[in-house]
Fold this protein.
Amino acid sequence: MLLDVPAWGRYRLLGATRDDAAGEAFDKVATLLDLGYPGGPAIERLAPSGDPARFTFPRPMRDHGFEFSFSGLKTAVRHAVRASPDLARDRADLARGFQDAVLDVLVTKLARAVRATGYPVAVLGGGVACSRALAALAADRLRGHARVAVASPRLNADNAGMIARAGWWRLRRGERSDWTLDARADLPLPGLEPSRTTHHSPRLS
């Protein structure tokens, strides 16, 4: 997701995935490559030893808008894996080609959002933000335009920590829930507003 955050507790959705999320794509491709779970760290460990020119995978929806789609990229990797006569030999090159494609799409969209909003800070959050390669590429491409802020991997991979921090902020504002509150995975993001660009927010994630 690309979120415009004009203030704590207020969010505007600029773009989201139409199918697989980036983290889900990493996990599924890691399974195709027999790298285990979670996929992101395994692919990131292997990718530096791969040839970046050997497999050039598609960059879905990279060149327009703020939305994402990774199902086609995942399918392209599956075809390449099936066509490989020696997966052990090709595994690092496949991991490198896939990771380069995903990060290129993510950072291109992030840079487009920064240009559209004029924000001085871009915040990377969530499990995929644990990727050092993603943070490095984002910092390089946004140099001179925006600072890239990333939490520690320990915090980015801890959903409970994120939820607790959001709850702490709302509690301090005096917000309370009654006993009818239940755990739901499909709750809408509180404070989500209609999408529109703004030039007043200090952070975009």
